[in-house]
């Protein structure tokens, strides 16, 4: 018997083009994913190093709302404000059982600063910014062990 020649089927030109296109698309997807992961991880590392850097906020201390009468000719004006403090200490370092409770002293300092303001002072963005600066400076002077780095207003209402 004569041996029959083997016929191998060669893929058509369209099939080869489709395979190449799928290979290129797959490679692009992998490359874009790798770049996205690299960018995301480097940004996360920057955020982590900023938080751990000296002077960074490591924890937030929530304070109950304050309601104070304001100075000024309008005797019936008052301020209701909610504050959170950004501290340079870790959460576990802030626990009150490690010594004298700090919240009563913090509330005393904050009330003292708030009571010196008038409603006209607090109705402008500049006045609110000045209040934040004054609170931060006073807390850093009078309660330095908290290492207060930031003041966050969580609620701010001036009633005239």
Task: Provide a compact summary of the structure.
This protein has 160 residues and is an alpha+beta fold. The chain is built from four helices and four strands; from the N terminus they run H-E-E-E-H-H-H-E. Helix 2 (103-114) runs antiparallel to helix 4 (125-142).
Mean pLDDT: 82
Biggest β-sheet strands, sense, barrel: 4 strands, antiparallel
- What oligomeric state is this? single chain
Instruction: Tell me the domain tally.
Output: 2
Overall CATH class of the largest domain:
Alpha Beta
Span between N and C termini?
112 Å
Helix content: 40-55%
What does this structure look like?
- The protein has 160 residues and is an alpha+beta fold.
- It folds into two domains: 11-53; 59-159, Tetrahydropterin Synthase, Chain A.
- It is built from four helices and four strands; from the N terminus they run αβββαααβ.
- It has helices at residues 13-52, 103-114, 119-122, 125-142, and strands at residues 59-62, 66-69, 78-87, 148-159.
- Strands 1, 2, 3 and 4 form a four-stranded antiparallel beta sheet that branches.
- β2 and β3 form a beta hairpin.
- α2 (103-114) runs antiparallel to α4.
- The longest helix is centred in the first third of the chain and has 40 residues, at 13-52.
- Residues 49-53 have low confidence and may be disordered.
